[in-house]
Amino acid sequence: MSPASGLSLYFFLIVFQLYIAIAVISIIALWKVFRKAGWPGWAAIIPFYSNYVTFRVAKMWGGWMFLQLALLISSYIFTLFLPWHAKYLGETIVDCAIALCMIISLIANFRISRAFGKSVGFGIGMMFLPFVFLPILAFSKAEYQFDEDDYYE
């Protein structure tokens, strides 16, 4: 084993441990946020159900999760059937679908931050640095404020 490969293995292990630590912290924080909002905490570890509960905590229709999933899957499938000279169109469609999914997630984060009495900037932070802002939300004294007028069925 050369010294370079040993160093790259060491670097990989450091990055992997950091990733695992961030994932565990994010799951614990999401668990606490769900519990504060009155949902079961175990929903944080179930892949698609956690997205559904996230939209429900944001007082949004749970079907937004399916819309995001359908947008991404259909845009990728659409690109498979395009002729080779239209691949740029397919990439543009995929990019637009990803941008729309990010906008939907940003709206959900704004609504979650507002439901806990936080600012719009906090919602932006939840979108781009969730491993920092979710624990702040989870372990702060912020309480979930459910208002029927803000709820979309």
Question: Strands, helices and their partners?
Answer:
Layout: H1 3-36, H2 47-57, H3 64-80, H4 87-115, H5 120-128, H6 130-139
Give short descriptive properties of this protein.
153 residues, mainly alpha, 0% strand
Q: Give the ordered list of helices and strands.
A: HHHHHH
**What Rg do the Cα atoms give?**
19 Å
Task: Say what oligomer this is.
Answer: single chain
Mean pLDDT: 84
Class by SSE composition: mainly alpha
- Tell me the total number of β-strands: 0
Strand residue percentage = under 5%
Helical region count? 6
Model description:
By secondary structure, the chain is mostly helical. It contains six helices and no strands. Helix 4 crosses helix 5. The mean pLDDT is 84.
In short:
The protein is mainly alpha-helical and 153 residues long.
